[in-house]
Design goal:
CATH topology of the largest domain: Lambda Exonuclease, Chain A
Strand content: 15-25%
Bound molecules: iron/sulfur cluster
Structural class: alpha/beta
Order of helices and strands: EHHHHHEEHEEEHHEEHHEEEE
Number of helices: 10
Length: 355
């Protein structure tokens, strides 16, 4: 059976954010971590999925009342905190409680906005597509929801896809919905100038997620979806994004660059604000010590600055292991696995950038 190299938007985004992070995440078996926004986001998604589970009695949602849905969310969050207590980066009781409250808000908003609405066509639906002209590259994505928008919605947002008052046969009356649990204020760009609004929203319009997802839908279903919606649960606002063939060409180009980077083992260490919550910070240092230098008034610069050193769980293996060669696309599952038995982090040997 043919082996595929699986490509998702998360994988591509991680690679271009920091190649070393991608290497640790996809080519090793180093322990994963989590943080409150990631954990909370996943749990909120699962809770919304549960809200749509078919109840025994006929009613719109699985829970009888909003109060029951919120109570159940709180229990879910307690269970998640207990289950993940050893994996949380920077544990903090106050941040954990803040996420519980944020979850209440997201669930309550979702309930109020969707109770009377037609249920989604699909929830957490997986789409995959074998990319043409790329050897065994399988593009995949999991759509949070597929929904049927009203004709008014489509006419307002995509008037150009109507022919003689009818939706073009190229299109399905379907929206791909991304449930976003980020903290967002009440009004989007409310007091901004038009230029500020355009610049503020630009990243959403060119983001890979809507492009990959609308492309996946088009290729697997044979029709284009009307568009993609970022649904911000914390303020019940949405932002609509449309994609076209020009976006798909750029996406395929980005995927080619990504594949070439992986094959040639171009793992660039790109430190930035994302390091703070990186699962592989200790492994990335490759040292058994981590350092901290206290910010100090520059006028006091002297030979006496205190640098503190903290021991890190990283250990270098004694025995050499197989090199991660990537001449042909192959499944990461088939690569050598590193299974640390203790909390120690055993680095691959040699690391690709040490050859
Ligand atoms: S700590 Fe920063 S530089 Fe190191 S792998 Fe993680 S994101 Fe990359």
């Amino acid at each position: 059976m043919a082996r595929y190299f699986r490509v998702s938007k998360s994988s591509i985004l991680t690679f271009f954010r920091c190649g070393v992070q991608w290497f640790f995440e996809y080519l090793t078996n180093l322990p994963r971590r989590t943080d409150y926004p990631r954990l909370g986001g996943g749990e909120i998604h699962q809770h919304i999925q549960l809200i749509h589970r078919t109840p025994k009695q006929p009613r719109p949602f699985y829970f009888r009342t909003l109060k029951a849905a919120l109570g159940s969310w709180s229990h879910r969050w307690d269970r998640a905190l207990e289950r993940e207590k050893d994996r949380i980066i920077l544990p903090n009781a106050e941040a954990a409680e803040k996420m519980r409250l944020h979850g209440y808000k997201c669930i309550a908003n979702y309930w109020k906005a969707n109770y009377q609405k037609i249920a989604p066509l699909a929830i957490e639906k997986r789409f995959k597509y074998l990319l043409p002209d790329m050897q065994n590259i399988l593009l995949y994505g999991i759509f949070d929801q597929l929904r049927t928008p009203s004709l008014e919605f489509i006419k307002k947002n995509r008037p150009e896809i109507f022919i003689n008052g009818q939706l073009s046969p190229e299109y399905d009356p379907v929206l791909i919905v991304d449930l976003n649990s980020e903290y967002v204020g009440k009004g989007f760009y409310k007091d901004d100038s038009l230029e500020e609004k355009i610049r503020g929203q630009f990243k959403m319009n060119v983001s890979l997620e809507p492009v990959i997802y609308t492309y996946l839908y088009n290729q697997t279903m044979g029709k284009r979806p009307v568009g993609f919606v970022y649904y911000y649960l914390s303020n019940n606002n949405y932002i609509f994004v449309r994609c076209d063939d020009q976006d798909y060409q750029m996406m395929l180009y980005i995927i080619k660059i990504f594949i070439e980077g992986v094959r040639s083992e171009s793992f660039t260490k790109a430190a930035g604000s994302h390091c703070r919550y990186c699962d592989y910070l200790e492994a990335c240092s490759e040292r058994s010590n981590l350092y901290y230098s206290e910010p100090t008034d520059f006028s006091l610069v002297s030979d006496e600055q205190i640098i503190q050193s903290f021991s890190s769980p990283v250990i270098q293996p004694q025995a050499r292991q197989l090199k991660f060669k990537f001449k042909v696309p192959r499944s990461p599952k088939k690569l050598p696995k590193l299974r640390p038995k203790s909390s120690k982090i055993i680095l691959p040997d040699p690391l690709p950038w040490r050859n």
